[in-house]
Amino acid sequence: MAGEKEQGISTVKSILVYPIKSCRGISLPQAPITSTGFKWDRQWLIINSKGRAYTQRVEPKLALVQVSLPDEAFSEDWQPNSNSYLEVKAPGMDVLKVPLTKPLKTADNVSVWEWCGSALDEGASAAEWFSTYLGKSSRLVRFNSDSEVRPVDPNYAHGHKVMFADGYPFLLISQGSLNALNALLQEPVPIDRFRPNILVDGCFSFSEDLWTEIQINKLTFQGVKLCSRCKVPTINQETAVPRPEVGETLLKFRSDEVLRPHRQQQKGRVYFGQNMVCRESLVLGVEKNTSNSLIIKVGDPVCVLKMVSSPDIAPA
Q1: Helix and strand numbers, DSSP H then E, in the chain
Q2: CA separation for the pair 266, 202 (Å, rounded)
Q3: Does residue 1 lie within any of the structural domains?
Q4: Which of 34, 70, 224, 225 is the residue whose CA sits 20 to 30 A from 151?
Q5: Is 0.90 topped by the overall pTM?
Q6: How far is CA 93 from CA 56, 123, 137, in A?
Q7: Total number of domains constituting the chain
Q8: Spatial separation of the C-alpha atoms in residues 188 and 174, rounded to whole Å
Q9: Is residue 109 assigned to a domain?
Q10: pLDDT digits (tens, 9 = 90+) for 38-71
C-alpha cells in the first residue's frame, strides 16, 4: 500500500557514470554523491557550431565513444593535477587526452534543452578530434559550476540541479524491469540501452515505478518523475545502429495509455525507469563531496520507505 515501508527488497547491482553526455558510461564499484548527481556525471558536452548539444538522438555514432578517468578520480576528496586526464577513444581515431585541470577559455550560448549559458571550452585539439569523428564542426565543453546553475524542473524537485544531464541527477532502473522487456524481445538488450545511473536487483519488475522514497547507505533518494524515453534505447550501443523493435515493444506495454489510463490527456509517452534526486545533495554547496558517508556502493541494500500504489498516480 502507498506509504508503507518495504525493507531491504533489493540491492545496488551496478553504478554507472557518463562523463561526456551521450557517450559511453563507466561502471563503478562505488561513486560519491555531489550537488548535481554522481561525481563527473554529464560534466562534458559536445556542441555544434551554434552551441547546441549533440546527442545520440541525432548522432548515434556517439554510442561508440569510450571514455575513462583515473580510478582515483572517484575518491571523495581527490583533486586533478597536471598529469590527470579524461581519455576518449573511438573507432578509427587516436586517443584524445583532455586535461582534467579546468580550462581558462569559455564558450558562450551553450544550450541543452531549455537551458542556455556559458561553459568551459576544452580547446582546439578536442574540437578537431570530435569534428573529425562526427564529420562536422564540433567542440567539447565542460560545465562551469563556478558561474552556472542548471536547476531541475521545480514542479518535480525544487532546489535540485544538474550539469548536462537531460533533466534529473539520477536515473534508477531495476534488473527485473529489463528482464521483463527482454522476455518480449526476439533479441535481448543490455541495460546500457537505457543509460541508468543506478541498477538495482532483487525486486519485482517495474517496482521502481512506485518508489517515491528509498534509502541507500543512509542516503535518501526521492523518486520524482517516471522517465519518459526518447529514441536512444533503440540504438545498439555496440554498433550505433538503431533497432525499432525495442521502441515498438515498449509502446505496447509501457505507454501512458497503458500505465496511466485514467489521465485525461495522453501524450504518447513511453516510461522506463525512475528519475531521482538525493535529499542530502541539497546541503552540498559545491560539487566536491566533503563527507565519506555521501557515497553508494555496489551491493548496498535498497530500503523502500515510501511508495504509491499504482503508476497511474506516480508523478510523470
Answers
A1: 4, 20
A2: 32
A3: no
A4: 70
A5: yes
A6: 19, 18, 16
A7: 1
A8: 15
A9: yes
A10: 999 999 999 999 999 999 999 999 999 999 999 9
